[in-house]
Records
---
Amino acid sequence: MPRRRLPSSLVGFVRSRARVDAIPIAAALRRTLAAGYDAAALRADVLAGIVVGVVALPLSMALGIAVGLPPQHGLYTAIVAGAVVAVTGGSKFQVTGPTAAFVVILAPIVAKHGLQGLLTAGVMAGAILIAMGFARLGKLIQYIPHPVTTGFTAGIAVVIATLQVKDVLGLPIAQMPEHYVDKIVAMWNARSGASIAEASVAAATLALLILLPKALPKIPAPLLAIGAVTIAATLLSRAMPQFHVATIGSRFHTTIGGVTYDGIPPLPPRPMIPWGDALSFDYLRELLLAAFAIAMLGAIESLLSAVIADGLTGKRHDPNAELVGLVLGNLIVPFFGGIAATGALARTATNVRAGARSPFASVVHAAFVLLSIVLFARFVSYVPMASLAALLLIVAWNMSEVRHFLHVARVAPKSDVVVLLSCFLLTVVFDMVIAVSVGIVLAALLFMRRMAELTSARTVLDQGEDETARTLPKSVALYEIAGPLFFGAAQNAMGAFETAGAQARVVVLDLGRVPVIDATGLVALESAIGRVRRAKQRVVIAGPLPEPSRIFDRSELKSTCYLAPSRDAAIELAVKLAEAGETPEPPVSRPSTSWKSDVAKR
């Protein structure tokens, strides 16, 4: 039976509209249509999308609640961001929606600024992602050290797990404090109000979430586990009035158009103005740091999820297009009441295992969640809060990667372990923004120290391993630097140079093994050469000169030193200068002092 293809006019339309000002848009969709999309692929995408939708439905509600909002806001995120990023992004298999990693960033915003503040921060994060894209900063994300990401990910998992204790035990806490330590104290003080019924529901849900994937690996465990516990808890509460548990319907109430809905309103996401009447410069300034954290974490997690999808499928995603899709998704979703979104690792892996073939699977997942809201919102109101808390405990456990964390802490160098533990503790005690900032700075300082240790400097004089050095006259000293000459190593490398060959008339400085030099290295080099010249010694620099060579073109070294293309040529010149008795000034004209002429030459 011949394959039925989509109309060629549709393929041409997508190709013609897929780029705006050379910005990559819908790369995955274009590749799918160009390769030929038939009815069999559509059927596979529909089935995969339904499976992912079944997984995303309870998880999106749980994440919306964990942030401190009614559950429908998590569902709106899955619907809008799941469809927009799938259509405009660069990965065929990525599923976008609310994720557990955002909880520690978004929950404090909700506590301080409410829903409007959270939605406004989401729009700002989308704008920051646009700026990152135009500045081509997307690739800088890959330079964030692994101990930093591992540390803050494990810390986020601990915070998420801690936040679920309240609902798992049914603790009577009206408002959770903002800081982690205060949360622990509040839950400890409320321990006498723990409910056996709530704990039983959470324990039953946990048991099913752990056992079902082993017994029935092809059936989505979250929906089956939460559905079974919901039915059991509802029957028990009607048969035994003393058996009472909090549900989505009893916890959340939404009024729309004068009608109050218990739990989730049976309505699709509606357009809205995220910031309402609260928009001002001071308001935006308060949210700027949180928006930056949302943008950075969203980009990191989304690109990481796409890379994992590539590993599962053997395909390759377009990171630039995926970042564009993430930008559009996060810009649009707040206008429909959704929270920040990024690539979801677990849902993406489920999508791949379910047989997805194109971005349409993620679109189907979004449509499934939308239909579930419209058709089954009444039944969702019976879901116990303890069951959703148990689901987030499983998410936190999987997210923590305890074995990998312990492995890194055991085998990594001590400096990396310090970064790992610092990011972990700072994420738990303070927040992820502080943890990542301190972690990156600490990792950068340790990296500079390591690079400085790699830069060696020595006086090559009367050393048997160097044939050239043995033939040098006493009036010539040879000094060699090997390794990058940047601000972390410049002072140490140049310190010994000033005392190199105190009895010599000419000093050869060999830079042939220096791959790069920065402004600090150049200043240290010029200062050291100046002090050597004041000691009535002349300097010959042996090349090839390190990159970037334009630094030397703009420096004053040409007017104070002799330059030679190699060590042998430099030694030959130094010997001639030493034998000549007087060492004249270098026969090189001084660089132009006019910046306009320099620009013109370039």
---
Amino acid sequence: MKYRSRLGAPDIVKSVILWLGSVCFLSLLLTQCRGQSLPSQATYDVAKVEIDASKQAAYKIPRTIFGTFLEPIGNSTYGGLWADVLENPSLEEGLWSAAELKKVLDREPQLVRASELGLPIPWEPLFYEQQNRYAPQWTDTFNSFRSLQIMGLPETEVGIRQKVYLPVHRIPGYSGSLYAKLLSGSRALHVSIRQRNHPEVTLAKSSITLNSTDWTRYEFHLGLPPVGLKKLEPSDFVISVEGDTTILVDQISLLPDDNVDGMDLDMISMSRAMKSPIVRFGGNFTSAYHWRDGIGPREKRVSMTNVAWGIPEYNTFGTDEFLHFCELIGARPQVALNLGTGTPEEAAGWVRYIDDRWGTKSGGLTWELGNELWGKFQVGYPGLQRVAERTRTFSDAVRRVDPTAVLIATGGDADSYRDWNSEQLQNASAFNYLSTHFVVTTTAVQKAAPSPDFIALANFALPVGLQAKLREMYGQIQSHPQSRDKVKIAFTEWLFWAQGDTVVRYDTMGGAVAAAGFLNMLMRNADIVPISDMTGIIFFGGIQKERSKVFGTPAYWAFRMFANAPATTVVETHVASAEYSVEEGSTRLPRIERVPYLDVVAALDDSKETLTLFCVNRHLTRDVSAEFSISGFHPLSESSAQTLFAPSISMKNDETDPEGIRPVDVSVTLNKDTVRALLRPASVTVVTLRRAR
């Protein structure tokens, strides 16, 4: 392992050694965590933390550093926030890129045969043995580009089905609709839920009478019996005809009865609990997204490919739905405009549309002028030579519509920003903030054959390295006359990503430790970075949904612990803790020195009556016995504390154990103005102290 552990300055070392002699008495004072006994003295690290609450930072911690990020990627919107359980509801062809389609077919190989019968992915025939009773239609559709013809057979049933996961753990009833057109035969159409791959077992059924030979909308309701379907068990949603009936069908929907205007109830509840003040609507998809595709009657919005990610974009979750989501969870919208395939006029139209519908309708919202425009992966990227001009043109168009708009220009990543930002800063009057992102692949390190421990500690160190880079970035901003004291940094994407899930990643306990360290870094640097958006509120580091079950990642819980704390002013804090340094670490920031194993931020609330301690123990195997000496704030003996901890940093929550890792209440010991706490390895702890009267 190419990092070295060391203590602080010599005088600190002496005090720590002396204090080690008294650590044995802590076993009488410190409590157990998650039912585990205290470790032996040999497994302790010792840290002293000096906090002076009378020495307060000159800036406030803005709520906007706890922003989040929503982009149609994976199952963030469709299959996630959006409650409709059906994929490809308008029965289209070609919605997936070749790479994404291969993933779908690898998971569900039977769909290859279904597509040979004329069925759009992921729809299947009710009975494969009936073979060709289906025909796509391009010239007679209700929505988008295709409908599907279903041709009945005498004395039998013909239909289509789709594998679905229903939230039966929460709700038994499901409401749906479809558009159909009778071509010939009987007017009967049946909709049902059946046991997966057992069409003879019907769990719920509704019959529809087709009363028109024109396209007509039909509604239905399906109620499952109490013991009809187990939670997390797949079923088949079926549309069928009998006898000689031939129909066209298009634009199908199936929603749980407890949906909130089309959105998942649990997603709304868990999003609201994060208390995120802003939600960024953007990402790579922005550069090929035309906002008018996502407004108007939902059933007439056209399905297409999300070019950035090679997945379907049904456009049922558009601007109005996004604004409603923000309203429901108490957040403000922060929208990234299309500077790839878009025009200034289109961007200005979107600003006007949202301003006319949001809040007091007085404007003043925050807008991003594009997303990662420096990347050749970005649709329509402008290149270094044209970015400043394009930024200015779009800025002028937006400000003509809303002079109070707050604008974020695309900046470079914190490890590779100088040339790009220098070009943008020649044009600094066009924006208020310069963005930066840090989406890091945690397994990408310079060291050959790195151990898992090395990878973990290298990534836990990244917030320390990023802090130095952000200060350098801000120094460059200050060096330009146009931007000095006028432009700050907006950290509009940050994510710890990896292909495998046995390392530090957004959805593991290691990801939670990395996220908490990042949030501590943001609080320390909120004077220059007052806006930040974690990737993302849904999917990645936030809320996930698998097989209809909604749950939070460990990073979600860490974020929630921090964002819910009443902390507004950082106070002076000195930590005497063991340290380590990293060499040959992340390819993005390979050398980071003097990383404290214990990372602490202390902050007061506005009333100065509450002091919160945000503690991250980066050590992978050792507990930290921490002594917090506090001056300028005399705490009550009553206090509260929560710890987020798991036996392994590779552990994560999933649909079978959705809350296996979540904060638990722990005790700390107060003696006059000294607080003692045991901080578990690779853990996140938030201690809340209240001032004595």
---
Amino acid sequence: MDTIHAKKIKVRGVVQGVGFRPLVYQMALRNHLNGHVFNTSGDVTIILEGAEKDIEAFINQLKASPPPQARIESIELEEQPVEGFQQFQIRESIILENEYQLISPDIATCRLCIEDIFNPSDRRYCYPFTNCTNCGPRFTIMEDMPYDRRNTAMGKFNMCPQCRAEYDNPNDRRFHAQPDACPVCGPSLQLVDPSGNIVPGDAPLSLSADLLRQGKILAIKGLGGFLLACDATDDSAVALLRQRKRRRSKPFAIMTASLDEIEIYCHISESERNLLVSSQAPIVLLRRRARSSSLSPLIAPNTIYLGVMLPYTPLHHLLLKQIGRPLVMTSGNISEEPIAAENGEALQRLSGIADYFLMHNRDICSRYDDSVIMAVNNRMQMVRRARGFAPYPIRLGYDSAGVLACGAEVKNSFCMTRGRHAFLSQHIGDLENLETLEHLKDTISLYKKIFHIEPEIIAYDMHPDYLSTGYALDLIRSAGLNGVPVQHHHAHIASCMADNGVTGPVIGVAFDGTGYGEDGAIWGGEFLLADYSGFKRLAHFEYVSMPGGKAAIERPYRMALSYLFRIFGEEAFNLALPFLKGIDRGEMALIKQQIERKINTPYTSSCGRLFDAVSALLNIIKESDYEGQAAVEMESIADEAIDITYPFELMEKDGIRIVSFDNMFRAMTSDIMFETPASFIAGRFHATIADVILTICRELVRETDISTVALSGGVFQNRMLLEKTVKRLESENMTVLIHCNVPANDGGIALGQAVIANSKYLL
């Protein structure tokens, strides 16, 4: 008989809420082992007793074949005295003081659960809350750790005998599935009108499908909040949704029933296909097919990309199946307010938008928008990090102090660090109202509670007027914490470095629309020598006036006039350029006066404002409805085959290189007057900016002997520019870092703030 051995195994990572204990149970039985497994606040602990070869086989199997959604970070082994266990059990969870555990994001419905809801003989036939250990809600229903039913929004639903039998059966895939439910004992749907009155009928999903076919707008409660839905093939419905949501032209995302349907509308690469069908089921930005389709052109006007996702809950699968056409699915809010999460809140905030509300009675513990991703050179690049990804952490290569980084003003997210983990939050929104600020505070409180983090350092943007900065300063004063202000573009580059596991130093290229500079100007076309501890500004775009400040962002033609006025003087207002014809002469005079007298004309080196100016010059756009619109629409018409460039000039002042685009604007103006196609000029402009980056980086590499270049900032969400830039830099043997798990835009800036603050605190 084999000698009995005993081992304690501690497994850390995403190992709760992913079917880990059930798998451990089944592996233990297969390997003839006794003992038990239980969750703690910090890990999954396994006690094994049996033959040494069987314990080794168990450990090897666990490493090789964990549950599909698990991510094992470490396995610790410890010899244990033999206690003589006679069976293997799943035991009650243990709460450990000050310990924390990684948490699974929400998981899209698995294949087996989809089969259940479409199987007439299954007791969950057409049940919209079907899930198992491999899929379903996770973080959005969590109130606390460990991940047990009592600590989730499902705690109020008592399992019926059949669900309890599944939950207790080691051979059932719903064994210890915490959100397990069925039509008898679980959450239920309700269709109501804007006054909260129940719509008569016993089939809310069928009624909802009928209403959508009639052109109605529905608010549908999902995993992390309400989505606004309408028929994506109905121009009138899409136009009405735009009007009510106050979203003139910013693209909507759509949801389709299958990949085959997506291929009717878009080109799909293998990497994009993998993203669409992944357990995260994000919105993926796909290139549209040139031929016409049944989709309303109002969904994403004047763009070559379309945001598309597949159903990720049983409710979505059932609704898409019944309606038989694609649906617009957009966040349940107005503008950049937080997504509505609770039923009463949705009725109050969305009653002017939605005709009907498809609700349920399962609470949402954390608001989550849909994640948005694009694939560049077959590599994932995050645009909006939310459902399916947060709160999975970014792994740091060092032990960090407890930092709370409060993020930026636009596309806000925050970041908390503990140990080797940086928990970058889901997308919070634009901090332009108190509702979004409250959402930020509430979510910070939840993260502090679940991950047991009490920050000792508060990091924040240097901009004095950001709400996130004000919130950070209040925290610092009230709690007596250490505060670290972080320059915006330094944070961008550090974010890209942390995303790639690099500590630096690097040559950082930070291109965006707005960032408060150390000299008080608005930066945004920056070349930095950077690591986590600091940065040096080595080059930047030449400063230009922003006539009217924020008005120049909303009306890009003001930026075009600013560039032209500097080059041509008063003659700029009389040039034979088509875009000038639509501008009021009185406003032109005001712009001239503002620039000359320096009245509300902050200086900017912003690459984003440069894109605005060129887009307006080409008469592509005069006024912006959403951030980056001018650049998005110019990229959509640009001829990517064009690789010749416009002239630009490098100057030097106080040891810093400055890029002047005066000669480029002269050449562009001439091209426009000779009626050169806008597609050619736009393509040539993109090639020029890529060439500027190459030219400066080439010189900086030679001077610094550093050949790693990090590209960050919202401008690098422009695929054409990013691809041209990476190709040029790599052709000269530079190592190029681009974003992957963290957005290049301001949604990723909190990560950079966090790693910088930790580094500065340790100095």
